[in-house]
Design brief:
The complex is a heterodimer.
Chain A: H1 2-11, H2 20-39, H3 44-61, H4 69-101, H5 108-123, H6 126-137, H7 141-165, H8 169-177, H9 182-213, H10 224-233, H11 237-265
Helix pairs in contact in A: 3-11, 4-5, 4-7, 4-9, 4-10, 5-7, 6-7, 7-9, 8-9, 9-11, 10-11
Chain B: E1 14-24, E2 27-37, E3 41-46, H1 53-60, E4 68-73, E5 76-77, H2 83-90, E6 93-96, H3 108-113, H4 122-126, H5 132-145, H6 160-173, E7 178-182, H7 190-207, E8 210-214, H8 218-224, E9 227-232, E10 235-240, H9 247-254
Parallel strand pairs in B: 3-8, 3-9, 6-7, 7-8
Antiparallel strand pairs in B: 1-2, 1-4, 4-5, 9-10
The chains are: A mainly alpha, B alpha/beta.
Chain lengths: ~270, ~260
């Protein structure tokens, strides 16, 4: 069959052929980058000049000044309190919200509004939510706590819901067949399947909340961020350095705490 | 059986009348099933895959809602039961699954104890407050199925045969008035399959309750069952003793004859 042979020759080409669409896309990206650098005046000289300023800043930051350690410590304590309260409340609420958003266990009229609410919680960056709360409940830790609760729900309620949607329904079916009620069903067939993942998500959220709790203060929602912001504004760069180092210590402490929690529950 | 003989003792354990189920309207999977289970012991339901055997069993404990018909159990129509009432009926129906359906991350003994959840309040369940009597019963059941030394192991560390034993112990833990087993042996090797059937037979005798067993292995069915119900295309085509079943029946149930040696 002569006809088949010619189509064969065309069919049996090198499979690693150049794809002009992909090549073209790379070229467009490269061109756009060059254009953007030019548009913003980002040149090598500008970069070198920037390094000089950074050098001055570094010189003023070191040695760090811990003389106002009481202020530092109280800010640090407040940040940690904000993070832990927000994590506990946020995770607790997310347990329920995640369950109500799980499409394999709940009817549509429950999951659709719940998913909408969770998505809404995740829509805005915590800074924007913090500003909103500062305006609505006033300056201080309460605004920070509310901000991080919203952020926690937006993030882990969604992860919880997804974890629940991936469970094996066979186990659920078996527990349902014993005549167990809905609460028992969740406790004995859903929770065992998702618990260790929930712990993982929760420690991650605690970590994230600790980080963010030092940020919400910048817009007046309590914690160390406020102290940091005013130190910046007064050019107290040595105190800024002290604050930054304390934040690093706090985050590392959180990391250690997460590991302990994970080890306890695994 | 004359009506005079139907007193309290011989009243059927389970009476299914005109049961129909359609997953999509008009497409009947069960086309009017009538079964009366009067005797204790194993009743085997045989038939090819996709003929509605699993659907039938799942209608009995209402894991699936039937479309029409009646299921009389404990003097109540299971088809009409709702909420609390349904759960109370369900806890008297022990179910054994083809793929065991154990809660993988719970231990063996915890899995057996879940058989009592139908008898516990949500609060008690949340506090893991199983009565000492239940705990003793659970361990006795593990002794009976020969898994005592595995009690504290996680369910996902067991072999198939061991898991099915746990599944049976969980079902018996409910103190059921009837056992349902959906292809309990088809994921198992022939020797283990026989052991599982022996176990079901033993519990059915001990508790003096019927055990409805879906099974596609005809010889295994004939060996253990006092009564065989043959299903084909959503209907019952044979209902009687294993001795009465002929090649003609089997041809009608499974179709073809090349597999009949």
């Amino acid at each position: 069959m002569a006809g088949l042979e010619s189509t064969d020759a065309q069919y049996r080409q090198n499979p690693f052929k150049r794809n002009w669409l992909v090549t073209g896309s790379w070229l467009v990206l490269a061109g756009y980058l060059v254009f953007s650098f030019n548009a913003m005046g980002l040149t090598w000289d500008r970069f070198i000049h920037g390094l000089g300023i950074a050098d001055q800043l570094m010189a003023r930051m070191f040695p760090p000044n811990f003389s106002r350690w009481e202020l530092l410590l109280s800010g640090l304590a407040e940040s940690m309190e904000i993070a832990i309260i927000a994590s506990v409340v946020g995770i607790f609420l997310s347990l329920f919200f995640g369950l109500f958003a799980a499409r394999n266990l709940m009817p549509n009229w429950v999951t659709v509004p719940m998913r909408g609410f969770i998505a809404l919680c995740r829509t805005f960056h915590p800074v924007i939510i913090a500003i909103l709360f500062v305006k609505s409940v006033g300056f201080g830790a309460l605004a920070g706590i509310l901000t991080l609760i919203v952020a926690s729900i937006g993030f882990i309620a969604k992860l919880f819901a997804e974890a629940i949607e991936e469970i094996s329904l066979k186990q659920v079916e078996a527990i349902r067949a014993t005549g167990a009620g809905f609460v028992s069903l969740i406790l004995f067939s859903v929770m065992p399947q998702v618990f260790s993942r929930f712990i993982g998500f929760s420690t991650y959220q605690l970590d994230s909340n600790l980080r963010n709790s030092t940020m919400v203060g910048i817009v007046g929602a309590g914690g160390l961020g406020g102290t940091l912001f005013s130190a910046f504004q007064r050019f107290d760069y040595d105190f800024v350095a002290a604050i930054l180092m304390s934040i690093i210590a706090l985050i590392m402490l959180g990391e250690a705490l997460s590991n302990v929690v994970r080890r306890i529950f695994n | 059986m004359t009506s005079a003989q139907v007193n309290i003792e011989t009243a059927p354990f389970l009476e299914i009348k005109g049961l129909e189920k359609a997953y999509t309207p008009g497409n009947l999977i069960l086309k009017g099933i009538d079964i009366s289970i009067v005797e204790s012991g194993i009743v085997a339901i045989i038939g090819p895959s996709g003929t509605g055997k699993s659907t039938l069993l799942r209608c009995i404990n209402r894991l699936i809602d039937p479309t029409a018909g009646q299921i009389i159990f404990d003097n109540m129509d299971l088809c009409k039961a709702r909420g609390q009432q349904l759960r109370k009926l369900r806890r008297q129906v022990g179910m054994v699954f083809q793929e065991y359906n154990l809660v993988e991350r719970l231990t063996v003994i915890e899995n057996v104890l879940t058989g009592r959840l139908g008898y516990m309040s949500s609060l008690a369940a949340w506090r893991r407050k199983f009565s000492q009597q239940d705990i003793n019963t659970a361990f006795e059941l593990l002794d009976a199925v020969g898994l005592t030394e595995h009690a504290k192991k996680r369910a996902d560390s067991l072999s198939g045969g061991q898991r099915q034993r746990v599944g049976i112990a969980r079902a018996v833990m409910q103190n059921p008035r009837i056992l349902l087993a959906d292809e309990p042996t088809s994921s198992l090797d022939p020797k283990t399959a026989v052991e599982i059937m022996e176990l079901l037979e033993r519990f059915a005798q001990q508790k003096n309750i019927p055990a409805l067993v879906n099974i596609h292995d005809v010889s295994l069915a004939s060996r253990f069952a006092k009564r065989i119900i043959g299903m084909s295309d959503g209907k019952i085509v044979y209902d009687g003793s294993p001795d009465g079943i002929t090649d003609d029946h089997l041809k009608q149930i499974y179709g073809g004859e090349s597999w009949l040696v």
